[in-house]
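User: As part of a screening pipeline, I want to sanity-check one entry by hand. Below is the sequence and the SMILES for flavin-adenine dinucleotide. Please return the complex as structure tokens so I can compare it with the automated output.
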Amino acid sequence: MRSYPADYELITPGSLDAVLCLLSDEPSQWTPIAGGTEIMVLFGAGKLATRKLVSISPLPELREIVESEDLISIGSGCSFTQIRRHAAVKKHFPLLAQCASLTGSIANQNRGTIGGNLANASPAADSSPALFAYAAELELISTRGTRRVPYEQFHLGYKKIALAADELIRAVHMPKRFGESFCYARKVGTRNAQAISKICVAATGSLRHGRVEEIRIGMGSVAPAPLRLIGTERVLLGAALNDATIAEARKALLNEAVPIDDIRSTASYRQLIAGNLLEELLREFAAWGDRK
Ligand SMILES: Cc1cc2nc3c(=O)[nH]c(=O)nc-3n(C[C@H](O)[C@H](O)[C@H](O)COP(=O)(O)OP(=O)(O)OC[C@H]3O[C@@H](n4cnc5c(N)ncnc54)[C@H](O)[C@@H]3O)c2cc1C
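Assistant: Here is the complex for your manual check:
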């Protein structure tokens, strides 16, 4: 351990309001800690810049999954275990349940939260592609009130997010309109558990008279931030899923997915796999349409 615990302060206010007041009264002084699976790695490595931590882990308001007729709302403090086991998530948002079950190890899934995953803003975050695919919105909260941000507007650059210093992510909202949609998710990593993605992808879509009516594709580890493949989707909208369309889509993907070399993989491998996964998802999408 390269950090000395006595150098740090950790407090646990009794309520969400008390946490928000603290973030507002002492801007940028306090860092929220939820499951701690990111923060404790930095702490252990002696790289945790902040000295003041405010625990949001016990707050019940952040730990609920609430289902209404047309929406599901997942509290930011929900763990991946809670998410992957939840009946309504499994039924209406199977890609998110799948991504949760592919995140880290069981221990990670027990501690790690969806809010921590999103606020940490890793380009490789496993929950991000599913949130693009399901048109998720984030609810952000501060003493100034709450606001909703479409997930695709949340990432502003490498580790830059649309979250003010006095705000918390309160919940993730997803419309229950993808029940009949085609859906696809894959994670490519060194091994099945405990591996950060070399590439991760999730997509939903629908066809009308053999042509693409809607498609939403999210991909991780191919850009400085999690990416919705808007340019690739544009090529696909209204097109029939034949070899020519798939080749066009692969080309479009290479224009917007610009991965880098890092310790987990190389840019060229990532580009190849991103194209292969896109092709696999489109062929499965076409086969799904043929079966309908
Ligand atoms: C061994 C290991 C394996 C891992 N494997 C994976 C993997 O396969 N896939 C993957 O995506 N991730 C993986 N991770 C990363 C990590 O587990 C996840 O990102 C997890 O979701 C983080 O959640 P947390 O609650 O533990 O975050 P914390 O460590 O508590 O916080 C992380 C950051 O988010 C902020 N934060 C937390 N909650 C909120 C909130 N509600 N509002 C605003 N800011 C907030 C904190 O201030 C901090 O900056 C792994 C980590 C480890 C250590």
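Points to compare against the pipeline: The chain has eleven helices and 14 strands. The pocket of flavin-adenine dinucleotide is lined by residues 31-39, 41, 56, 76, 103-104, 108, 111-113, 115-117, 119-120, 125-126, 168-169, 194, 196 (CB under 6 Å).
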